[in-house]
């Protein structure tokens, strides 16, 4: 029933607790949703490769942590989100969507069950306020509270094949990490501070995301850097994070996902628990489904070195049928890849091209993800 | 070789006789990030001031090589076309892009003025 901004620090842009560390490391910073975050420390190709081959360390403290608790928390989340969160076990994570009444996507998020009546909802930095506002508007009548803990929380991710070895070497007090499955979490303690140790990520590699009190984030970061020396751990910025998630076929809010897009259009119909729960916000619109002509998400690959980029027109023959939502010269694959939204009639076309600044680049339909790590 | 001059489009220019060697500045390559593709014009092509002579693509964005004045293309750096990372490692040296012959005088900045622009 209440929304509390636990920050109460007044105006001013929020700041990652690791800003000074990034500056000392020579990071190039960009404004991301009001946060100064590293876009790269050196070469974003080298950072990308480090995650695929060894390990990369990311600061994700700009992500929004919204704590939902109370006897009615599970019931509330079942109503407010697209998934059936009441069904997840303690320390389990679940990818979910926050839908508008008309079925469009307000945000995509990860929900961790951190107690019998306690959940951590992690939203995109750019949607922090939209997500908090929507959840707050839906909480009336439920025995639950929501608290925005974003600015009290540090979040760092270690991603890559060496992630397990590195995170295991920093003296975390917890159950063993090795058996921890993907999309599961564990409570731990690092130098006296609570840590949520989650086997989650946004890179297509094995890895961990570690949530800790903001004031302890720097010590955790330094411990990971030290433990990572033997494993080739590389500091990574948001540029590498974007090419990693694109190769892994993961959608990005603002590119593939938006208020104008229903989950079924982007292959996320399975995230919506239509059959296993009762009423939830957006249900009627999801049941009605997207309009017949609503664009759908496809994956494209091309030859050469020229990247299709967000916004470039996609043509079927000589007719524009959609647009690229994300694209890059895939660093690991070595050829151009893109996700695009196109008219359903062209979603199986073999004559698609991307207009790369006036040049028609032939593009082949490709199943997502573009890259899948070897098991 | 003459003193290095700059344009407000973040290019550097060194003139020897009537031929100007042109590349993007170290500041520009740092802003672009890793360069993964460079497209250069054909030798002999004539161009007007402000015309795009080529593209420098990084993982995250695209930069254009803008002609600072009218002229023609004398030579292009084939090594950079083969190894675009030269633009990162030696933007103002081995990573030069084109040699041009201008038919009019380009408007150029000296180093101090360029530094001020990028400060």
TrEMBL record, chain A:
Role description: The glycine cleavage system catalyzes the degradation of glycine.
Binding site for substrate: 209
Reaction(s) this enzyme catalyzes, per UniProt: N(6)-[(R)-S(8)-aminomethyldihydrolipoyl]-L-lysyl-[protein] + (6S)-5,6,7,8-tetrahydrofolate = N(6)-[(R)-dihydrolipoyl]-L-lysyl-[protein] + (6R)-5,10-methylene-5,6,7,8-tetrahydrofolate + NH4(+)
Record's keyword terms, sorted: Aminotransferase, Transferase
EC number(s) given by UniProt: 2.1.2.10
NCBIfam families xref list: gcvT, PRK00389.1
GO terms under cellular component: cytosol; glycine cleavage complex
Residue ranges occupied by any Aminomethyltransferase C-terminal domain in the UniProt entry: 297-372
Name of the protein: Aminomethyltransferase
Keyword Transferase part of the UniProt annotation: yes
Gene3D superfamilies found in the cross-reference section: Aminomethyltransferase beta-barrel domains, Aminomethyltransferase fragment, Probable tRNA modification gtpase trme, domain 1
The protein's assembly and partners: The glycine cleavage system is composed of four proteins: P, T, L and H.
Organism: Agrococcus baldri
Entry keyword Secreted: no
One GO term (biological process): glycine decarboxylation via glycine cleavage system
Signal peptide: none
Ranges for domain GCVT N-terminal: 20-275
Family: Belongs to the GcvT family.
A Gene Ontology molecular function term of the record: aminomethyltransferase activity
TrEMBL record, chain B:
Pfam families in the cross-refs: GCV_H
Cofactor descriptive note: Binds 1 lipoyl cofactor covalently.
Entry GO CC: cytosol; glycine cleavage complex
Residue positions where N6-lipoyllysine is found in the record: 60
Domain Lipoyl-binding: 19-101
Gene Ontology BP terms: glycine decarboxylation via glycine cleavage system; protein lipoylation
Protein name: Glycine cleavage system H protein
Organism of this sequence: Agrococcus baldri
Gene name tied to this protein: gcvH
